[in-house]
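CO-FOLDING WORKSHEET

Operator: S.A.
Ligand of interest: flavin-adenine dinucleotide
Run index: 433
Mode: holo prediction, single chain
Checklist:
[x] sequence pasted
[x] SMILES validated
[ ] output reviewed
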Amino acid sequence: MTPHILIAGGGIAGLTAALALHAAGFPHVTVVEAAPGIRPVGAGLNLMPNAVRELDALGVLDEVEAGAVRTRELRYYHRSGGLISREARGLRAGYRWPQLSVHRGHLQFVLAEAVRERLGPAALVGGVRVSGLDLLPDGRPRVRLEHRDGATRGLTSLRPDVLIGADGIRSTVRAALNPGEGEPPWNGMLVWRGVSRVDARRAGSFMFIAGDDRQKAVVYPVSEPTLRRPDTLVNWALAMPADRIANASSTSTRGDWNRPVPVDSFLHHYEGWEFDGVSVPDVLRAADGAFVYPMVDREPLTRWTHGRTTLIGDAAHAMYPIGSNGATQSIVDARALAHAMALHRDPAEALAAYEGERRPAMTELQRANRRLGPEIVINLAHRRAPGGFTDIDDVIPPHERADIAARYALTGAFDPATVNLGSPYEVPVSALP
Ligand SMILES: Cc1cc2nc3c(=O)[nH]c(=O)nc-3n(C[C@H](O)[C@H](O)[C@H](O)COP(=O)(O)OP(=O)(O)OC[C@H]3O[C@@H](n4cnc5c(N)ncnc54)[C@H](O)[C@@H]3O)c2cc1C
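OUTPUT RECEIVED:
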């Protein structure tokens, strides 16, 4: 009998874990997702080549790429418009896999479809959430479930062989394992996010990060123009300290991804922001709407695994949205977990092995993101040349810029040399149950 594995949360981490476990020889997997259906919520995100490699190994890359853009270049700009650096990305940077810019909704939809096709429609249960759990003396979890309205009609508690908490930054599983941890800590910054339909000629073909330590803009296309649809979907995320925003006191810091705000309430902060032909105000004016989100993360945990229960994705290591690591690392977690499950007969040992591999690296990345990761270059440029510059090499020498990028890539294990070795998570045929 193969074990029954219950996954709390059908986001990027949970759905990828279901696919990875199935591919590793575990067919008896159930994902319970609190939202009633998989809807295209959220905005864009970037997948680094190490995550794209794992999606390729799972056989979903073509479908993901069909609705994504290959990120070829990342540019950093000074607030004054000066170019701080431009880095080749993905295939152009020598990786065997591309970096992808994609709408989160498209990625989640492709993963959910693959789960239903491969594991059967009953494997993904919407509108049901994990409401609590107990750890039984033999290390197994007993999991309580409820409907969205809090009712428990028709639901019984479950005793799966393994529980995976993939339920995001405000994870119920994590809270049950770490009572008293409380809300995610907030760094005082607010992030506005959204997508806009923009004429492809005015969208830019690159991803850019612009601004300084007080105000920032990240903009990139997430769809390719086609003959039938000549415009491009452009993702944008703008960050500012809440104490500089007049009506910010009414903003919840709970980390609710779906809190809408009118674009007019913040557009004026970005008047005049234009970078090599891409006008941030023009992009914002073309948006249907916007969401506001407090910049929160999680304190690194000293333990993810308790017996036969563990955490993956944001539930394990939510970090600031810097360096394109949120979805990227949750996909790698999912594959690492399935690999460990296939190699270890005892599920508790498997979960401990998964944690042993992933937790130290993710803790380092969480800390690196608190120091702003590779985006520190825009702060350095502003600090050293607040009014702008003629030659960036006089402000941040090329070797210093290259060092910052390379050090961060090593921290996240997405440097080309490591990624191009191929996936370390392929399960040998001899280990398949
Ligand atoms: C609605 C939404 C929009 C987002 N938009 C963006 C974006 O635009 N850009 C970006 O970079 N990142 C976004 N993120 C975050 C990004 O998806 C994650 O950082 C990353 O992909 C890691 O994914 P995850 O699966 O660990 O967590 P999440 O993507 O947060 O997924 C967690 C899932 O668990 C479900 N869930 C929560 N509690 C329970 C429970 N008790 N029982 C069962 N299910 C539960 C949630 O509904 C959600 O589907 C968004 C997340 C969400 C939930």
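REVIEW:
The longest helix spans residues 347-370.
Residues 263 and 290 are 6 Å apart (CA to CA).
[x] output reviewed
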